[in-house]
Amino acid sequence: MTDNWRSEYDNPVGRTKQDIEETEKQDGLAFVGIMDGREIYLHRADKDHPEPYSVERVPNVREGINAGPGRKVLTMDYSQVEMRIMAAESEDPWLIGILNSGKDIYCDMAAELNGKTYEEVYSGYKDKNSPMYRKCEEWRSDAKGVALGIPYGYTAKGMAAKRHITSCCLSTMS
Prior knowledge:
By secondary structure, this protein is mostly helical. The chain has 8 helices and 3 strands. It has a 3-stranded antiparallel sheet, covered by helices on one side.
């Protein structure tokens, strides 16, 4: 950690020193400073980038919401509501079945797309200490992007470009 961390005034994103250190540890980054409300990190060289390069972390909007004294912030999550609406409207037996099973639909899709079992993907995604955590998180994110991209009008080619996956994989899902 560098000495660029001076005071709360210098930290418009509202994250603590411990939060920054956790990001460094988790992502293998070195904190450089804060510029225009964004945290700037230096990423180590890797196989895709022969030289170290800088990356920015745009704060999650929730980090900027604080309740006043004596007040609380209420958040709600409508667990996979888009998929539930699609299941009800389409009457798709597979979609209804997976939603009624209580499984995480995006982990199920990720497992199917990547030739893994649901248990492998779900446990890898839920356990941040798992050697498969990053891969399972990436697979689930791709599956979620595809699943939610379809009703919002993305084409297979458009999703492939956005999610960095091949359009032939997407054609099996649309």
